[in-house]
Every structure is written in structure tokens, then in C-alpha cells.
Amino acid sequence: MSPTSATTFADLGLTPTILRALDDAGYVKPTPIQAQSIPFLLEGRDLLGLAQTGTGKTASFALPLLHRLAETPRPAPKNGARILVLAPTRELVSQIADGFESFSRHQPVRVTTIFGGVSQVHQVKALEEGMDIIVAAPGRLLDLIEQGLCDLSQLETLVLDEADQMLDMGFAKPIERIVATLPADRHTVLFSATMPKSITALVESLLRDPAKVEIAPPSTTVDRIAQSVMFLDASNKKAALLSQLQTPGIGQAVVFTLQKNIANEVCTFLTESGITAEALHGNRSQGQRERALNAFRDGDVQVLVATDIAARGIDVDTVTHVINHDLPSLPESYVHRIGRTGRAGRSGFAITLCDAEQRAWLHAVEREIGRTLDVHDSHEWHCEKARNSTMRPPVLGGGPVKQVKPQKVRERRVWTEEEKMAARAAAAKTS
Ligand code: AMP
């Protein structure tokens, strides 16, 4: 993190208990998104924040909301909460709740998490006691509301974090149904890394005269990450990956694969090759995912092999490399992936392995980020055929990637809205 703003946290007017917690956490200066968002949120203004992961956006909403709780003490509503934060994945939910807990360590605040994949018993018990803050994934929360176990009619503030990812994962309807149970005169905050039309529509329907804070233009990649691509035959990807991971000086790496079965295969291959690795994807149980993340965070394993959706909550400052074993089928996922490195002011490397079939997805990524990746071609597997390929990308389904017969593409392919939606739905299913 390299805060550039001159403002201090004390200048922002945060309460002494929060300032002490920030001191404990070693936060010296607000990051730009914090310096810009906190004053609006302290005033109670609705806010649209356009920021990528790694910019410090969690504290940018957690700190002013905790301040407002401290300024207006009142009993936590039974079966509900004063603040609700919605986030796309269990990992991100846990990470945001950890942030709230750490920043409120000198303040009596009750925080709980709600997500699927685990028993609801503890979640229901926490709700019965009444909470100040609920951090939740939309699916399980809606489930509890529909069972009559959660009542958010007393809610004061709603935060939607990583809203673009929530929509990509098909949470538009659950969010709509949750919002329908909230008071109309609430305070609403929405953060998104990208600004597709669907997010503009969501902002228009949920936010009232929002202040807008934008840290990096949407869909641009972080400057301090060196990005390169290796063109090769699909059959050489594992060898190339291993060789990259054996480069001297490499620290921890996150390897992204297109599908869960490929993540397992790659993880087994790396382990058999003497590299400590864990897989993180939607087919693993909550316990397995937490153990994998903890082992990675503690430095016990060098590599995490992940699919897109499972990887959203990975916040480990020591990741030096992101390696894309496969291109993502959705170009915006590339931006999220590489944001797993270059964190906390460090530099990072993003290396993409591209075969002939995934070449079209690389074109889409390069259009999304507005630049071409540096080509690393001085390696033994370099394949010009992959570099110049005009094959159609793989068709994603429930099973393995289907091989599609090569076809000449005469003109630049433009994705239709239907194709984009189908790709999104397939990605949500396969990650
Ligand atoms: P986020 O974008 O909220 O995921 O934060 C990214 C990383 O930056 C996390 O590891 C935070 O602990 C860290 N961070 C956030 N704000 C600050 C700050 N003002 N000073 C130092 N580190 C920070």
C-alpha cells in the first residue's frame, strides 16, 4: 500500500477508539480511496466507489461506519443488524468481518458472518442475539430471511462490495429480494472494480444522489505488476508452469485454472514435482478451503491453485506471482486475478500461459486492459502457431473443455450480449 494523500486518519475526524485500533494495525496514513471516501460516509452520503482490490477499500467503508455506530449508540436489533455488508464469496465475507473486528477492537461492536456451505445453527444463534454488523454472502442470507430467521427492517446501512462479481455470479435476483426487505431511507454504499451497464443500472436503482470516488479507471490493471504471456502448446503448460515456479527468487504464487478438475490436476502435478500446493475451488468443503487458505497465508504452502470465483478473497501480501495456467473466459476476471499480487505497495509478476485455443480470450483481455502483454518467447516451448491462432475459444459446459474444430475467423470477433451472458453463466457454474 502506498498512500499518497497528505491527510492523516486523525484529520479525518475518526473517534479515538478507531484511531487506537489503526495504530495497533500499523496503518499510518489513509490510502487515496480511504482519504476520499471516509468524509462522504461520515456525513451519511450514499457512495459509489470504483476501486480494485488492494487499494484499501475495506477500511474505506468499515472505518466511517464504525465511527457512526460509536456516535449513535443503540441496542443491536434482534434477528437483524444496523449494518449489512454483502460480498460475493465466503472468503471475502470472512476477510471483511476480520477487518471490522480488528478496527473495532476498542469499541463494543457485534459482528457476525453469514454464508452457505456450513450449518446455519451458529448464524441463527448470532442473529437471535442481535448484531451491529452482518457481513453476508447473498444466497444464505436470503435463505435465512425467507425462513423468517432474519429481519432487516431496522437496517441503517447497506454496503455492496465487489458488486460486479456478485452480478457475474448470478446474485442479481437474491440482492433484489434482500433489498426489498430493507428500509427505503437507508444509507447505501456500493463498491465495484468495473462498471458494466448492469452495475450502472444497480447504482441507479439503489443509490440516492451518490458521491463518486474512483481510484483507478475501471478495468485497468495495476501499474506495478509486470505482465507477460508465453505462447505454447497446451500439452506443455504444466512443464512451463513448473519451470516458472522453480525460478530462483520466486515467492508465493497463485495459479489460476479454468475449471475445478484442472485445478486438482495441476495441484497433484505440482505436489508430485516437489512443490507444496493446495487447491481452492467450489467443490472443496468450507473446512478444506479455510485450511488451504490458512496454510497459504502462513507460508506453509508455496502455491495456491484456484478457480476464479474461489480466489476472490485471497488477500496475502507476500504473493509475488500470479500464473494463469488458463486464460479466463471473462476478460474482466483477468484484472481480478492479477490483483492477487502487487499488494501492499509491492511489485508483482503476472504470467499468462496461452495456447492456440485460448488465443481469442487473450485478445479479449488485451482489449479490456487497453494494452498488449509483453511476449516472453525465449523459452523452449514457444509456439508461433498459438500466437497467431484464429481458433474459436473453447465452449464451456459442466464437463471438461470441449475441443472445437479450428475455424478461420475473417474479421475481428465481437461478443454479443447473449454470448457474454452465456459465458458468465458458464463461468459461474464451472469456477
Ligand atoms: P483491501 O483493498 O481492503 O483488500 O486492502 C488491501 C491491503 O492493504 C490489506 O492487506 C490491508 O490490510 C492493507 N491496508 C489497507 N489500508 C491500509 C493503510 N491505510 N495502511 C496500510 N495498509 C493498509
What are the defining features of this structure?
single chain; Rossmann fold; alpha/beta; 15% strand; seven-stranded parallel β-sheet; disordered N terminus; 2 domains; 431 residues; binds adenosine monophosphate
Textual characterization of the structure:
With 431 residues, the protein is an alpha/beta fold. The protein contains 16 helices and 14 strands. It has two domains: 10-214, Rossmann fold (3-Layer(aba) Sandwich); 225-393, Rossmann fold (3-Layer(aba) Sandwich). The longest helix has 15 residues, at 57-71. The protein is globular, with a radius of gyration of 22 Å. It binds adenosine monophosphate (AMP). Adenosine monophosphate binds at residues 1, 3, 27, 29-31, 34, 53-59, 315, 317, 343-344.
Question: What would you say about this model in short?
Answer:
With 431 residues, the protein is an alpha/beta fold. It has 16 helices and 14 strands.
User: Which architecture name of the largest domain does CATH use?
Assistant: 3-Layer(aba) Sandwich
Largest sheet: 7 strands, parallel
Strand order of the largest sheet: 3-4-2-5-6-1-7
Distance between the termini: 29 Å
Order of helices and strands: HHEHEHEHEHEHHEHEEHEHEHEEHEHEHH
Helix content: 25-40%
Detail the topology: elements first, then pairings.
Elements: H1 16-25, H2 32-43, E1 47-50, H3 57-71, E2 83-86, H4 90-103, E3 111-114, H5 121-129, E4 133-136, H6 138-146, E5 157-160, H7 163-168, H8 172-179, E6 187-192, H9 197-206, E7 211-214, E8 225-231, H10 237-245, E9 252-256, H11 260-272, E10 277-280, H12 286-297, E11 303-306, E12 319-324, H13 331-338, E13 348-354, H14 359-369, E14 374-375, H15 384-387, H16 417-430
Parallel strand pairs: 1-6, 1-7, 2-4, 2-5, 3-4, 5-6, 8-13, 8-14, 9-11, 9-12, 10-11, 12-13
Helix pairs in contact: 2-3, 3-4, 6-8, 13-14
The protein binds adenosine monophosphate.
